[in-house]
Every structure is written in C-alpha cells, then in structure tokens.
Amino acid sequence: MTLNLGVLISGRGTNLRAILVAAAERRLDARIALVLSNRPDAGGLEVARHHGAPTQVLPHQGYASRAAYDAALVEALRARAVDTVALAGFDRLLSGVLLKAFPGRVVNIHPALLPAFPGLHAQRQALDYGVRLTGATVHFVDEEVDHGPIIAQAVVPVRDDDTEETLAERILAEEHRIYPAALQLLASGRLRVEGRRVVGGLP
C-alpha cells in the first residue's frame, strides 16, 4: 500500500529530507500528505517546500492541555487524509488522543539503541555512560517516552575522541538510512506486533 504520510517536525528536517528523497526515488511507497511543525521557524518547513510537500504550522502555545493540542493535530492530519504519522525531530510528547486516532501507525526515530538512553540528549548520555556502541532506533510510539515496540536499529561505534556533535553526526547518517527503510516495511504490510516484539522488522 502507499502510505499517506504526515510528518511532524520541530527543527532542521534532516530525517524529513531522507523520507522525501526515498519517496521521490521510489524506495518508499509513500505520499507526503502533510509536513506539520509546531514551530514557525523550523528549517524543515523549507525542506518540505523545496520538495513540493504541503506544510502547515500549528504552534502549541495557547492550548489548555497537551490533549487539546493533539486534538488539533489530529484534525489537521485527517484533513489531509493522513493514515500514518512519522515523528522526525518533533519536540512535543504525544498524548493518547493522537495515538488512538492512528493506532499502530505512529512511528518515531531516536538516536540511541533503545531501551538504552531514552529522552533528551541521548548522544551525551551515551558518552557520559562510557558505552562502546550506540546507534539509532525506529519504533512504534506509545504513551511512554521512547518506549514502543522496536522496528529497526543500527549500531554506531563510539570513538575515544568523539564529542557529542561528532557522535550525533554519525548516528544521524544511520537514521537517514533506516527510517525510510522501516517506513517501507510498514507500507509493505510486512510488520506485525506480538506483545512488545515486532515481527518482520529490519535485521
């Protein structure tokens, strides 16, 4: 099936670019139905426009609760017939309102080998802990932070001379590789979730 993809962003949009390029090159069976940002100055909005993808800005300020904001997100996504939501650097925690609107169809990418180092500054966490390997994880989203069933992971060695910035750059290259590939598995109908385990994910 072809995904009607809604991509939520807050920043530069490098993973968004990887998704857009994969769709343009037909490595990903997806139509980018909407790129939505909570920040009007997000660089990813220009990335979307450059690739001809429709954009919308929906600032999160002024809503009574996270659930109220998520209800507005759902309305915007449904107006574009979105069936799958990809988080690509979206800096808001999602409530059950959005997750229930798109059950089993909300996906995120995180710069660590989950369940290690969830939350913010995962690269710094990896360096502070002294691990020799870290990486990137694509996972289904649930109501806990960086917790849902894992679709794909990529391993990145940690070098002795790494800084947070150099490690983040190498992890990001792997994110750009595995995120479109994981979304394509979803498009192909090959994924199913058994408990917390995803069957049919990338090796």
Structure description:
This protein is of the alpha/beta class. The protein has helices at 14-24, 44-50, 66-79, 96-101, 122-129, 164-188, and strands spanning 3-9, 30-37, 55-57, 84-87, 106-110, 133-140, 150-157, 192-194, 197-199. The protein has two domains: 1-103, Rossmann fold, CATH 3.40.50; 108-203, Rossmann fold (3-Layer(aba) Sandwich), CATH 3.40.50. The protein is built from six helices and nine strands. The radius of gyration is 16 Å and the shape is globular.
Write the layout of secondary structure elements.
Elements: E1 3-9, H1 14-24, E2 30-37, H2 44-50, E3 55-57, H3 66-79, E4 84-87, H4 96-101, E5 106-110, H5 122-129, E6 133-140, E7 150-157, H6 164-188, E8 192-194, E9 197-199
Parallel strand pairs: 1-2, 1-4, 2-3, 4-5
Antiparallel strand pairs: 5-6, 6-7, 8-9
Helix pairs in contact: 1-6
